[in-house]
Amino acid sequence: MRSLTSVKRLSLCLYGSMLQHRIDFCQLVHLELCGGGPKWWNLLNWMLKSSPKLQVLKLNKCKERWFCSIEPNIEDRWVQPSSVPECLLFHLNTFVWKYYNGREEEKKLMTYILRNARCLKTATFSALEFESKEKATRKLKELVSLPRASSSCKLILV
């Protein structure tokens, strides 16, 4: 795992609890992360904190169907970090969330990112593929009213 400290691009698809090593990704600028498993929120928070130069963050649906079908545990909650990660303050300029569901924890995370990502230029969201067009549009439009740290940030709803 130590050899990962110098990677610039990384794609992870694993349970949050499976990544126990505390590594700093000091060169990482592009991260794709599949979410949905137990402790996924912890993994995301840890990756943001450990990647001070991160410029691009993509949250994807896992390609493994069995993994994606796991519903988040009701006790599995996103906890706002005690300090804003350096990447949000100085570097993150592109954020993509495929299959955004609009659950309460997802809204909390989005509020936090939009409120703290000072350099964010674009935030792109797409809804779950099985939702009706009207329901998906409503969920995505809720994001438009969220306050943003970057006055130049454009929200793109696809």
From TrEMBL:
Stored Pfam families: FBD
Signal sequence interval, chain numbering: none
InterPro entries noted in UniProt: FBD, FBL13/AtMIF1-like
FBD domain sequence ranges: 86-158
Transmembrane stretches, start-end: none
PANTHER family on file: F-BOX DOMAIN-CONTAINING PROTEIN, F-BOX/RNI SUPERFAMILY PROTEIN-RELATED
Protein name: FBD-associated F-box protein At3g50710
Annotated organism of origin: Camelina sativa
The encoding gene: LOC104763516
